[in-house]
Design a protein that fits this description.
globular; 16% strand; eight-stranded parallel barrel; binds 1-deoxynojirimycin; 3 domains; alpha/beta; Oligo-1,6-glucosidase, domain 2; six-stranded antiparallel beta sheet; Immunoglobulin-like; 13 helices; TIM Barrel
């Protein structure tokens, strides 16, 4: 979990744009960019909509549902990887970066999607996987077939093992997904060979980002998709590409998972070389006449490290995944928001606020728990539903961009009873089935009130089974209900696009009772979130623009609820 060591755990009461900013690292361009307060909608392609009725989502399915996304009121779609992939890690194991997996469609479908999105005024942000490729990528296959020390092996991290016959891994490093971060190879003659480094699954060998051919290939990949009209990239696990040539043991215990947000400095994560690569990509992005957006999945151990990624010539924004990890608690939220925002202010940059993703447990399920959302989650409660809506009101108030993972706008919950033979996430298998993994948030969307897969496919079963109760939260059901979560999101997003100034950076925490957060933006607007155990009384000089649940009394925000308030205008105004 990211911490602001400079604050020594104290809570900043307000955040203001510092008057003096470090000169050369700061973005001084004043023109507004399309992404400044944009809301992104994350599409996990395999689970969004299936046009060819094979039980798997595809690009044509997404095209058919673009009007739904537009009507939601977002500005852009971030789409999970569509590259050719054996799907060992949901498409984050790429066999060919310059084509589309037949599961999802063709390059023609991609063009169709980009054109149709642009016609509707939606931007398209693609996911760029760069830390690793698939073990089936031709580069890795030719590295395996090439001798030790060959130029092909230099594209990856191959090392000799330790101990007798090299039978022990080169060091004690751990994978983020569980187990050792080294996998042994077999020589073409069948004898055991060198080991290769895989920070994630063994089917995802890490690429060597000091190798010029790797760098050049990714320049080509960026241009390939930018040329087709892609408006930006979400950079997958990007802090992982920074690695030093230092292979000492880190003192990991055999059962440790590597956690980049809590472990101290390690040579294989967030080493300074990552910034040269980001500068190079930003230069490529700047070759284009319209602004291309680079938003990073940056997981680092402290706010100073985070701020480095937001320098003027690197990323425009990072996703606030740390906000997805915290429990429902006023101080935890306030502190995390202040910490993340301070990283942005140092660079005059913008956070992309999010509470969810295809890697996180669903918000309503997380907030239905009393403590941290670990293990198999208990059932969803009304409290969890209210808190999730309230959390989104807060996240959507913050200056910067925001991102909503598909299905959050329906209040979908984490599915915890997927039959074992359907589970796919490598985390489940690599942790010896100790961690259920991420399949539970990736269950295909329910579009209709009935049908084999509730309108996800036309007649096929969905690749992950949907729970029975999802007919009641389907898109069709919620469109018919003015108090539904979907209608709530639509109203909030419509309001958001009109009430905040595009270039406004500062916000303040107004004084408030313990457990209540009151975030002010400008003289007339406040977002109140009630984390406390008591109802919160609104003053008579304010009115609610929108609230997480209907206010039981016009001037009271109930426990677990939130509202956007505006100063009442006097009759003479
Ligand atoms: C982060 C992605 O969001 C996740 O789904 C994936 O498994 C890892 N990176 C590895 O690419």
């Amino acid at each position: 979990m990211i911490v602001d060591e400079r604050e020594h755990g104290q809570i900043l009461e307000s955040i203001h744009l510092p008057t003096l900013l470090a000169s050369s690292d700061v973005d001084t361009e004043t023109s507004l960019r399309w992404w400044h307060k944009a809301v992104l909608y994350e599409v996990f392609l395999r689970s969004f909509a299936d046009a060819n009725d094979d039980g798997e989502g595809d690009i044509a399915g997404l095209v058919s549902r673009l009007p739904y996304i537009k009507d939601l009121g977002v500005d852009a779609v971030w789409i999970s990887p569509w590259y050719v992939s054996p799907m060992r890690d949901g498409g984050y194991d790429v066999k060919n970066f310059l084509d589309v997996d037949p599961l999802f469609g063709t390059l023609e479908d991609v063009q169709n999607l980009i054109d149709a999105s642009h016609e509707l005024g939606l931007r398209v942000v693609l996911d760029l996987v760069s830390n690793h490729c698939s073990s089936q990528h031709p580069w890795f296959q030719s590295a395996l077939a090439s001798p030790e020390g060959s130029k092909e092996r230099e594209w990856f991290y191959f090392k000799d093992g330790r101990g007798e016959g090299g039978n022990e891994p080169p060091n004690d490093w751990k994978s983020i997904f569980g187990g050792p971060a080294w996998t042994r190879t077999q020589n073409p003659d069948g004898t055991p060979g060198q080991w290769y480094f895989n920070l994630f699954d063994s089917s995802q060998p890490d690429l060597n980002w000091k190798n010029e051919e790797v760098l050049k290939h990714f320049d080509e990949i960026l241009r390939f998709w930018f040329d087709r009209g892609v408006d930006g990239f979400r950079l997958d696990a990007v802090s992982a590409i920074g690695k030093d040539d230092d292979y000492r043991d880190m003192g990991f215990a055999p059962d440790d998972l590597y956690r980049p947000d809590i472990w101290g400095p390690v040579p294989f994560f967030d080493a300074d070389g990552v910034h040269d690569v980001l500068r190079r990509w930003r230069r490529v992005a700047r070759e284009y006449p319209t602004e291309k957006f680079l938003v990073g999945e940056v997981v680092v151990r402290d706010v100073d490290r985070l701020a480095r990624y937001l320098r003027r010539d690197e990323l425009q924004s990072t996703l606030s995944f740390d906000l997805c990890k915290i429990v429902w608690d006023a101080n935890a939220f306030r502190q995390m928001i202040n910490t993340l925002q301070s990283a942005c202010f140092e660079r005059r940059s913008w956070m992309t606020w999010t509470l969810s993703s295809h890697d996180e447990k669903r918000t309503v399920s997380r907030y239905s728990q009393d403590g941290p959302a670990e293990g198999v989650l208990a059932d969803v409660t009304q409290t969890g539903r209210e808190r999730a809506r309230s959390g989104y009101l807060l996240a959507l108030t913050l200056p910067g961009s925001a991102c909503i993972f598909q299905g959050e706008e329906l209040g979908l919950w984490e599915v915890t009873d997927i039959p074992e033979d359907k589970l796919q996430d490598p985390i489940y298998f690599r942790t010896g089935k100790q961690e259920l993994g991420r399949d539970g948030c990736r269950v295909p969307l329910p579009w209709e009130k009935e049908g084999t897969s509730l309108g996800f496919s036309s007649s096929h079963e969905a690749w992950l089974p949907q729970p029975r109760g999802w007919a009641d939260v389907s898109v069709a059901t919620q469109l018919d209900d003015t108090s539904s979560t979907l209608r709530f999101f639509r109203s909030v997003l419509a309001l958001r696009s009109t009430i905040f100034n595009d270039d406004e950076w500062a916000f303040t925490w107004d004084p408030s009772p313990t457990g209540v957060l009151v975030l002010r933006r400008g003289p007339d607007f406040r977002c109140v979130v009630n984390f406390s155990g008591e109802p919160f009384q609104i003053g008579p000089d304010e009115e609610a623009l929108v609230s997480s649940s209907p206010l039981t009394h016009e001037l009271v925000i109930d426990v677990n609820n939130a509202a956007w308030l505006r100063a009442r205008r006097s009759a003479t105004n």
